[in-house]
Amino acid sequence: MRSWMFSITVLAFAAGCTGLADLGSIDSVQALRDVCDEHEPESLELDVFFPATYGCEWGVGGNWEAISGVVAARTEQVASLEIPEGGIVCGLDFEFDGVDPGFEQVMEYDDHFMLNFNEVVLAASYGDMVDRFETSDGLALYDWDDLQGFPIELHGDVPDYCVGEDDGLSDCTIPPSETPGPIALSFEGDLVDRMSFRALEAGEYTFGFVATGDDNDTDCSHEDFEFVVTAPVVTAR
């Protein structure tokens, strides 16, 4: 299993607001929303990039040897956002057209993938995989031990997954496995507040990209994947 940690390019950030409540007083999703509504956030813009991977490391780092038809191995990539000390993230806006408005993010992967924020699964190319995970406050939490061994359909029309989609809080476009196509994700409302509160509690703002495989040389692969995150941030004293 390969694991990468990537630095994030900070494109723009202005000094945060002062006079906020202590972070310890933000003890619920509603308290976080109240602080964000009462103060004018400054914009933190970050470029997140996961370079292409190709092939699984069978039998390494918790991966099984190749087994046809089940999730046997994965690669995991991690990118951490650098939030200013005392910063409270009041939203997460994803842009998949990059710096160039004429650019369209196109993705091809093999066999399947998941995009996570901290442990929360934001999107997955095969929705049934997400049913394996435990949930917290309605959010599925990625765990390799829970996913390994899951029987998969490698091709065909399988349902994808987008957190909050059933509640009208997100919208995702995900191409099928081994099929180049556009990818776009959008999340809003209470869903973002819940993810921001979890991140505040953990003191961590980390994206993870997981590519899975079962039995061949091209598994655990994906093309370059890049997006811009705009995070409104207020800063507590």
Q: Give me the secondary-structure category.
A: mainly beta
- The domain count comes to 1
Helix content: 10-25%
Strand content: 35-45%
Rounded average pLDDT: 83
User: From N to C, what is the helix and strand string?
Assistant: EEHEEEEEEEEEEHEEEEHEEE
Biggest sheet overview = 6 strands, mixed
Strand order of the largest sheet: 1-4-17-9-10-13
Number of helices: 3
- Estimate the global geometry from the Cα principal axes: globular
Rg (C-alpha, Å): 18 Å
How far the N terminus sits from the C terminus, by CA atoms, comes to 41 Å
Can you characterise this structure?
- With 237 residues, the chain is mainly beta.
- It has one domain.
- The protein contains 3 helices and 19 strands.
- A 6-stranded mixed sheet has the order 1-4-17-9-10-13, with no helix packed on it. Strands 2, 3, 5, 6 and 19 form a 5-stranded antiparallel sheet that branches. It has a two-stranded antiparallel ribbon with strand order 7-15.
- Strand 9 and strand 10 form a beta hairpin.
- The radius of gyration is 18 Å and the shape is globular.
- The N terminus is likely disordered.
Summarize the structure.
The chain has one domain (3-235).
Question: Can you tag this structure with a few keywords?
Answer:
237 residues; mainly beta; six-stranded mixed β-sheet; 3 helices; 35% strand
Question: Which secondary structure elements does this structure contain, and how are they paired or packed?
Answer:
Elements: E1 3-6, E2 9-12, H1 29-38, E3 42-50, E4 73-80, E5 87-89, E6 93-95, E7 106-107, E8 109-110, E9 112-117, E10 120-124, E11 135-136, E12 139-140, H2 144-147, E13 161-162, E14 170-173, E15 181-182, E16 184-187, H3 190-202, E17 206-213, E18 221-222, E19 225-235
Parallel strand pairs: 1-4
Antiparallel strand pairs: 2-3, 3-19, 4-17, 5-19, 6-19, 7-15, 8-18, 9-10, 9-17, 10-13, 11-12, 14-16
Helix pairs in contact: 1-3
